[in-house]
Amino acid sequence: MTQHINQISSARTDEYVTIIAPSLGAVMAQFRARGLGAKGYSITGQAARHQFSYAGENAAREPSQENLFGGVAMVAATFRRAGAGNRAEKS
């Protein structure tokens, strides 16, 4: 049980960056421009088109007002860097 708790607390130290752009090329250009690869980030899964909505404090708003990017689907990719504890274990 202790080992499982340690794994959970280690996972919580991981850092995530999600890049949203009109195309996969633009996402990857931003990944390179920010130097995320050199900082230890890697993609967590498939990059895909998404429609984004903001779920703010006022849930009664009209759906059209909650859509981000004018309702246009954008490519999103999430990148993860292992937390300090996880990076030390891999060394």
Could you characterize the architecture of this molecule?
The protein is built from four helices and four strands; from the N terminus they run H-E-H-E-E-H-E-H. It has 91 residues and is an alpha+beta fold. The protein has one domain. The protein starts with a helix and ends with a helix.
Brief account:
By secondary structure, the chain is α+β, with helices and mostly antiparallel strands.
Largest sheet: 4 strands, antiparallel
Report the span from N to C terminus: 25 Å
Shape: globular
Estimate the strand proportion.
15-25%
Average residue-wise pLDDT:
82
Q: Uncertain regions: pLDDT < 50 for 5+ in a row?
A: none
Question: Could you give the count of β-strands?
Answer: 4
Summing up helix and strand content along with how strands pair, one would put the structural category as alpha+beta
Rg, Cα atoms, Å = 17 Å
Helix content: 25-40%
Name a few traits of the molecule.
single chain; 91 residues; alpha+beta; four-stranded antiparallel β-sheet; 34% helix
Annotate the secondary structure layout:
Elements: H1 2-11, E1 15-21, H2 24-33, E2 42-43, E3 48-50, H3 63-66, E4 74-81, H4 84-90
Antiparallel strand pairs: 1-4, 2-4, 3-4
